[in-house]
Amino acid sequence: MSVKPMIVAGVMSGTSADGVDVALVRIGEGNSSARRGTRGVASDRIRLLGHAAFPYPRKIRDAVLGAMNASSANVADLARLNALLGELYADAVLEAQRAFRVKADLVGCHGQTLYHQGEALPFLGSRLATTWQTGEAAVIAARVGMPVVSDFRPADMAAGGKGAPLVPFLDYLWFHDPHVGRIVQNVGGIANLTAIPAGARAESIFAFDTGPGNMVIDALMQELFGQRFDRDGKIAASGVAIESVVTKILKGRFFRAKPPKTAGREEFGREFVREFLRACRGARKQDVVATATALTARSIADAVRRFVIGKPHGIGVRSVMLQRRTDPNYREVILSGGGARNATLVGMITEQLAPLGIVTRFSDEFGLPSEAKEAVAFAVLAYETWHHRPSNVPSATGARRAAVLGKISYV
Ligand SMILES: Nc1ncnc2c1ncn2[C@@H]1O[C@H](COP(=O)(O)OP(=O)(O)O)[C@@H](O)[C@H]1O
Ligand SMILES: [Mg+2]
What we know:
Blueprint: E1 6-12, E2 19-27, E3 46-55, H1 58-69, H2 75-100, E4 106-109, E5 112-123, E6 126-134, H3 137-144, E7 148-150, H4 153-158, H5 168-175, E8 181-187, E9 190-196, E10 206-212, H6 215-225, H7 234-237, H8 243-249, H9 253-256, H10 265-268, H11 270-279, H12 285-308, H13 319-325, E11 330-336, H14 343-353, E12 359-362, H15 373-386, H16 394-397, E13 407-409
Parallel strand pairs: 1-4, 4-7, 8-11, 11-12
Antiparallel strand pairs: 1-2, 2-3, 5-6, 7-13, 8-9, 9-10
Helix pairs in contact: 2-3, 6-12, 8-12, 12-14
Bound molecules: adenosine-5'-diphosphate and magnesium ion.
């Protein structure tokens, strides 16, 4: 099948609530079979034309963080935030188009997650899982004059999945290799990995959240230093991590749980940070930040050891799992997300993984800039949806079946 190429604007705003990323991506199919997945567009048909980041203005960031952390929020304000973010996303797309002199045909907008509960829990006599992304797609469509695909997660959840992670679809397309097993590690607010064994088919990759990425570091930087984040990891580099605190936290429920698993502010938000500060009481401020940085690095390395290359635990693990968990071919970890710019964190991750024979590389080296990767992913997912094709990876989300993701708002 040959489909006309499209330019898609992928719009991502993650749990860090740092702002909006827009990637303008040319996606099209010819008859190429190079690096084509078992489904989806071939990776050599995806070209990044430009990426722009738009930090949230202070007031809006505070409102977003407030809404995400609130145990009870004002419904009117949440409805207003939905409309406001729609306007903001539209502005970001228009601005990116101007900057790169590109006119897109379609928008894929993830939205801002206000709440994500991948696990079914009791509620009013039912048991259900749910997710909520805000940022009104109808507003975006009207302002930019293009159809918008949004709200990608619910279709996967309705099919029994956790609604996350969705980026493995792109990870597979871009990074699978016949000879090298790769661990694609994104460090956003939350850190998540996609394990792609050498020569794997799309159905045999797996992915899960490893724990906090920058979320705890950012919160502590705000609390202790009045800064949004630890630029280049300088503060962490000037401190010493408290190993006993890291070890104790890693015994917690989330870290021990087997994949698939997802995390968000519900796990590593305000409450967690309060506990973390209590555990570190008496320590110097820079040691607290170093400890949070070590927690991110250690939780990633632990996850790799336990769930990716480690010995399968206990009996009863299905043979497929057994095979992929003992796959000896993982040789590279490919870092992306804002955390890839934190030199101290990257140093710690590298130090932890080197003894396992795993070399650190960056998404940028593969032509996919660290900060742009997730936005590119939502452009590709939107493209698949536009062509009525499924794009969840059931082995990553735990869904019972493949699902076409998202909703379409027309102009
Ligand atoms: N130069 C840098 N040094 C250290 N950390 C950085 C740097 N740039 C970005 N970050 C971190 O990355 C975070 C944003 O990462 P991002 O991948 O956008 O996450 P999300 O997807 O959750 O929005 C920031 O909040 C910050 O913690
Ligand atoms: Mg971000």
